[in-house]
């Protein structure tokens, strides 16, 4: 249409009777309705599946697996019944490390075209990549595959079998870990480690039992729980890791969660009962110890050790507790043995090492005790009080090099005054030189007995002796002098023994010699009953034994 010409043309007259506009002009006729011509529907050209396949092959050869998958997908949509298109897409998915999707395509292709060797080989390869070697070997068997074709699947199956055997019969988890490491080498790139393998690895770490291994066992459990927080086996694995680390309350919590997920899960029931029983017996032993029933505590701890002999963490603590109770019972060697076992279970257990040092000190093995304390300091320099413990043990070592007055009198270090006096009376009679005229060492023994009594019967001197001061200096301790003429010419370092005690001890039979104790004065007087003719008071006939 010519737009300019239409604008200058004369208006067309209206016929009579046509309605007028309000201003008197004739109304223009309404324009005809606008009609858009209907477009014909676009022609739907069929997808050429073979062309898509060819394009996919081209991309596959170029290693552009994403575009290859897209083209194969178009071919599958065009012809869903083609096993070839499914198999080709599976090959592209394998190359793209998308093994779960490849598995579905391989299985569908096998359904569409059973016993196709190419499809079966591809399916077996996917099974191997996903960590399913037994499934792979079954497929290879159907395909009559060669040993070379089956090599990876067979190696994986062998390693898994070794791991299972070691878990069942072996004592070390390290062989299990090695076998699993070898099996994982044939997993497909990016494939998650199978759940069963993680559980086996966690079990192996529990079997190893050291601090790092227990941490690794927890890591395996946590990986599984992130994937499924209601996995009862993973919950039990983590609970056992916590139990092995001595965190029994959290372990019990995990076992209960596992039972909430699966009330019939026997492993959860077994471990829950084990931990609860061990906790109960340990607490009973602790209560007996706190009540001063040390023998009962030892018996209960002994029974507790039989509940789960494999639990290193808890058993090391029970052994240390039993060692402490044995110290209270003065069973020092048993205490050392318990601590040694505790340290074999947990070499980092400082409390057991300190308890062992204490027991060794009680046995008089001070060098060994100091060695144990130094080991504590070396491994943990910040251990509270360790320097003081070492100094105290060194002091005990020095004290042990002088005369042991408690040992001389045959009493314990916590003996009271009556026990000390009773022991002295008995030993003084037995070892008095008059009773042992043919024993040249009797005088020395009697002297030691007197020194021991002199020191331990005096609270101040005993305190100084116990504190480690050198009390053997005559000038400092006894004021010089000696036993004078008695005992064959002096016993070195006179001892202030009560004349009344000696008189009563000897039955009062002290005739002659100027009335018995006439010569016993202070530190310098002779001791009654000494050798004849040496000065000092003499006894007419010795002691009335």
TrEMBL record:
Q: Which InterPro entries match?
A: DnaJ_domain (IPR001623), DnaJ_domain_CS (IPR018253), J_dom_sf (IPR036869), SRC_co-chaperone (IPR052758), TPR-like_helical_dom_sf (IPR011990), TPR_rpt (IPR019734)
Which keywords appear in this protein's UniProt record, sorted alphabetically?
A: Repeat, TPR repeat
Asked if the keyword Repeat belongs to this entry, the reply reads yes
Specify the domain of life of the species encoding this protein. Eukaryota
Task: Mark out the compositionally biased spans (Polar residues).
Answer: 9-23
Which segments constitute the J domain?
Answer: 404-469
Q: State the TPR repeat positions.
A: 49-82, 232-265, 278-311
**Which regions are flagged for Pro residues bias?**
28-44
The organism of origin for this protein:
Botryosphaeria parva (strain UCR-NP2) (Grapevine canker fungus)
Name it: J domain-containing protein
* Pfam families xrefs: DnaJ, TPR_16, TPR_19, TPR_8
Q: Where is this region: Disordered?
A: 1-49
Q: What is the lineage of its organism?
A: Eukaryota, Fungi, Dikarya, Ascomycota, Pezizomycotina
Asked whether the keyword Repeat is assigned, the reply is yes
